Structure formats: structure tokens, C-alpha cells
Amino acid sequence: MNRPAAGNLLLDVQRLSKRFGGVVASAGVDLQVLQGEVHALIGPNGAGKTTLVAQLGGQLRPDSGRILFAGEDITQLAPHQRARRGLARSFQIARLFRSFDVAGNVALAIAAVASRHPERSEGSRPAPGSFASLRMTVHELLDEIGLADKAEASIDALSHGEQRALEVGLAIVSRPRLVLLDEPMAGMGHDESHRMEALIARLRLHTTVLLIEHDVDAVFRLADRVSVLVSGQVIASGAPAAVRADAGVIEAYLGEE
User: What global pTM score does this model have?
Assistant: First the structure.
């Protein structure tokens, strides 16, 4: 695998390793994500994808290796410190405030961003200095993620796909430089998957995306580059057509599809 030019790197994962007792979840992972791309990470169940994402997000500390973000070593930083630098993530299970309606969830996220790191509100989303500006910002985000008509709906009234779209919206409130999306299409039907695919395609207009996903067809439609993780190691990385034709990838993963 050819290493991308350093000048265009946003995320540079170097020899990242993580072990749980006798189980090796990450075995010297090397992964490079370029500024402005949709980069997909695929692989069979148990390959170590979610463990890798947790290390990138700061929820897990690696045993060895380095994570460079925009040239800075963030390996030992906590999740909130990574968020301040512009790295955000979603989770496999939506983490929403069910006691608030849809607009209330977004308003809470905007207020949290403004209070914890106001520098990320400047030039991205306006800081909620008044009720009117907060309401406008909430509406803009809901329109962006396709939930403008659900502002007053309860979380439980949303479909599974709508809840996932809302969680993606909460992840991008701060306008991060990189958003990690952990299986955003999991459990969706055909129509909801296509709506999520369209949302991810829109995200690329203002942020870099690292997409972890099992829907291989969607991955190859969306991604600029694809990396394949098998048994805790990246076995191929490159343009979608080249990865899809790779004999090792077909044998280890795509042959199952």
C-alpha cells in the first residue's frame, strides 16, 4: 500500500495496537485519512473496526502506536480534548436525550459546544447569544439532516433511521474537521439507507468523513478511498475499484457478500 503525501493528511494512524488479554483487536494498524475525503473502513465482523474507532475517538487508549491529527500527536488526549481539535464521532447505538424533543436535543448540543469550546462556534455555527439565534441555528441543522419537519417530535416517535440522522446531526454541531461515523446504516431498510447515504454525501461539503459500514454497495458509491481491516490489520487501502478487485480482499471479506 502506498502512503499518501504528508501534506494532505488529516488523520495519520501509525502502528496502532490494542490487546484484550489474549485477544489482539488492533495489530499494528496503519491508516491515513486525507483532508476532504470520505474514507470508508470495512471488514468482517470481529475485525476490530469498532475498537479502532474507539481508539481514534479517545474512548480506548492503545497499547502502542500513535494517532496524529492535523500533524499533532493526540494519542494520549481525552475525547473532549480531541473534540476541541475538531474530531467528532457517532456511535453504533444512538445516544439521544429522550426526555427532550428533536429540537431540544440539537439545542442542548449547540449550547454544549458554545460553552465548552466557543472557538469552534466561531465561523461555523453561530453561538446561541439569544433565543432567536439559537432557534435559527437549530432549524438550519435540522434542515441539513432532513428532520426540519420533526422539530417538535419526541425521540421515540422517530424511526430508527431518523434517530441515526439526528445523532449524526449532533456529531456535526461543532463543524468538526473529521467525523467518525460508526455503522450509521446498521439496521436500516432500503429507503432509510438511501437517505443516510445522501446525508453522508452532503457532509463531505464541509467535513472529512471516516465511515465504518457493512453496507458494501453504499461504501463503494460514497467513498473516495477504502481501507479493509481483517484480524486487526489493514490488508488493503486505496481507490474503491482497486480495493474491490484485490484478491486478498475478495478472499478475506468480499467473497462473503
Answer: 0.87
